[in-house]
Specification:
Chain lengths: ~70, ~270
């Protein structure tokens, strides 16, 4: 199967077929405890990161708290 | 915690100073300033994770007992603000949100109509919504009608440090609403914070007023004392303003001959 094209934080990215959101975060070296993920406009609860298989064309936002007022 | 507490959305706080975490020189300075401020509510923003490098988290600067207040700063549409709030809830595990929907880039004035729409959606979604808004009596009425837990009128543009530009409107808002009124934005120095509290505001939220001071940690301490002093002055009830002097010392029994009458006493 060919690699999947997805968009992460506005930039294109390729992931292996069958990869989950948890796999993607691990590949990116992101500790899951301090990020939240939105998939195609809806929050993906942390408990589902390991179950949610990515699909070609998925648009993900991976966010964290930053300094702000 | 003193007896003079206040509550928002079922949370009770002793400190009436809310502080932001932006614009500091370092995480260490952020941590020291928050500690010096005595704040129990600390705001944070939500941003995309940088995928190419790891940065220290702002969370490392926030004392463990503090309540996080995520904001929707930078959002300019109802949809972006609602999405940001939902992601913040997933991240912070709290229903509190400081709602901002910006309507003008240069002044960072809020889009009040969009803020009311976003507030309505978020309240329906179970959020405790603290909206940043212009100091406008009709807007705060609408925000209360849709169920906001507090209102946060700006005193002056965000980051301007111009102080309480229109204390009269802040007083009108205080008379109009039953929810806490938190002055948000525009406080530049300690006396500004004291003025907000003397007007009767429940709390003051600031970021740049502390972070942009030459000595942020010292300013954080000054703000803590000013908010406390202003609150005490409000509770004490100030004396009425008078056009002429009234002597503080007894006007009778002065030494010397003649009746004890001061030379320039007004003729009655």
């Amino acid at each position: 199967m060919p690699a999947l094209e997805i968009i992460v934080n506005g930039a294109p990215r390729t992931v292996a077929p069958g990869a989950t959101v948890a796999d993607l975060l691990a590949d990116l070296g992101i500790a899951r405890g301090r990020v939240a993920v939105e998939r195609n406009g809806a929050v993906l609860p942390r408990a589902e990161h390991g179950r949610c298989a990515l699909v070609a064309g998925d648009r993900l936002e991976v966010v964290a708290f930053a300094g702000g007022g | 915690m003193s007896n003079d507490v206040w509550s928002v959305g079922g949370h009770t706080f002793g400190s009436r100073l809310l502080v932001g975490t932006g614009k500091y020189a370092s995480i260490d300075q952020t941590r020291a300033a928050i500690a010096a401020s005595g704040a129990e509510i600390v705001t944070v923003a939500l941003r995309r994770v940088k995928l190419d490098r790891t940065k220290p988290s702002v969370l490392d600067a926030i004392p463990s007992g503090c309540t996080l207040l995520p904001n929707t700063a930078g959002c300019t549409t109802v949809d972006d603000a609602v999405r940001t709030a939902r992601l913040s809830r997933e991240l912070g595990m709290s229903e509190l949100v400081k709602l901002e929907v910006i309507g003008d880039e240069r002044t960072l004035y809020p889009d009040n109509a969009a803020t009311v729409r976003a507030a309505e959606i978020l309240v329906g979604d179970g959020f405790t919504v603290l909206p940043y808004c212009t100091a406008d009596v009709v807007t705060v009425k609408r925000l209360c009608e849709v169920g906001c837990a507090a209102v946060m009128p700006l005193a002056a543009p965000i980051g301007s440090g111009l102080g309480i530009l229109n204390p009269h409107i802040i007083k009108l808002i205080l008379e109009m609403v039953d929810v806490p009124v938190i002055v948000d934005a525009g406080v530049g120095t300690a006396s500004d914070a004291a003025v907000a509290m003397e007007l009767g505001c429940d709390a003051v939220l600031m970021n740049t007023g502390i972070a942009a001071a030459k000595e942020p940690v010292l300013m954080a301490e000054a703000m803590r004392e000013a908010v406390s002093a202003g609150r005490k002055a409000f509770r004490a009830g100030r004396m009425p303003r008078r056009a002429y002097a009234t002597a503080s010392s007894p006007e009778t029994g002065l030494i010397g001959d003649g009746p004890a009458k001061l030379p320039n006493s007004p003729v009655s």
